[in-house]
Amino acid sequence: MQSLPIPTHFSGIHPMLLLSIFLGTLLAGVGSVWLAAWVNPRESSRFAPDMLGFAAGALLSTACLHLLPEALTGGVEPKRICIALLMGLLIFFVLDKVELWHHGHEHHPVHANPHGQAGQADGRVMAGVWAVLVGDSVHCFGDGLLIAAAFIADMQLGALASLAILTHEVPHHLGDLAVVRRGANGRQRAVAKVALAGAVTVLGGLVGYALVEPLKPLLPYFLAAAASSFVYVALADLIPQLQKHVAPRTSARHICWLLLGVAVVAVATTIDVD
After folding, report:
1. Where are the domains of the chain?
2. Percent of the chain with pLDDT over 90
C-alpha cells in the first residue's frame, strides 16, 4: 500500500485527502442507504443473510490484513497496539450493553395495542423511529472518524475501510428502513430520514480530518480502535445471525459469501497503488 505523504506540520487544506475522506464517508454513509432502498423489501429477507456474510468477511479481513498491520508499522510498541485492540473490544461491548452502540440488523415490529389504544401504539412506533435515527447518527459519526483515520494513514486503507463499512451498513439499513417506514408517510420520506442519519458519517469524517494534526501521534491507536470496531461488529453482530439452524445448502452459501468478503479484501492487499 502507498501511504499518503502528509506534511509533518499539517497546515491549511490538503485537497486530495479532504476529497477522499468526503467521498469515502459519503459512499459509506449515504450510498449504503440508497443501496438498501434499491433492494425490493419483499426480497430483502432472502438476500440479507448473504450480505451479512459478505460484510462479516470484509470487516474481519480489513481489520486483520490492513488496519492492524498499518497500526503496527506506526512506530508504537506492538504490545500497546494489542492493548488498544483489547480495550476497544471491551469498550464496544460495554457501549452495546448500555445500548449506545447497538448496531443490530434485526428490528422487530411494534404491534398495535390489542385493546384499541392506537395512540399508545403510534407513540411507541415514533419512539422506535427516533431511537433508530439517533442510534444511527451516533454510530455513523463514529464510522466517519474511523474512515478519516484510515485515509490519513493510507489512501488505499481508507478506500477499503469505506467499502467494508458500506457492506455492513446495507443490511443494517434494510432493517432501519422497515422501522422508519412505519412512522413515516411513505417510503421516500423514510429513505430521506435514514439518509440524513447516514450523512452524519460525512460530518464524522470532516471532524477527523480537522483533528489530524493534534491527534496524528495517536493515529496507530485510532487504527487499532477501528480494527476493534470491525471485529466486534463482525463477531458480535453479523456472524451470530448466520449461526441459526438452516439447511446444509444454505449454510454452505453463507460460508461462501463470508469467504468471498475475505477474498475481495485479501486480493486488494496484494495490489499496490502508486
Report:
1. 15-110+117-269
2. 31
SS3 content of the chain, % helix, strand, coil (to 5): 80, 0, 20
Q: CA-CA distance, 66 to 60, in Å (whole number)?
A: 10
Cβ partners under 8 Å of residue 12, min gap 6: none
Query: What are the start-end ranges of the E strands in the chain?
Result: none
Residue 155 to residue 135: CA distance in whole angstroms: 29
Residue 20 and residue 37: Cα distance in Å, rounded?
25
Model's pTM, two decimal places?
A: 0.76
HSE, side-chain direction, 13 A CA sphere, residue 1: 25
Determine the distance from the C-alpha atom of residue 194 to the mean position of all C-alpha atoms in its chain, rounded to a whole number: 14
Q: How far apart are CA 221 and CA 152, in angstroms?
A: 13
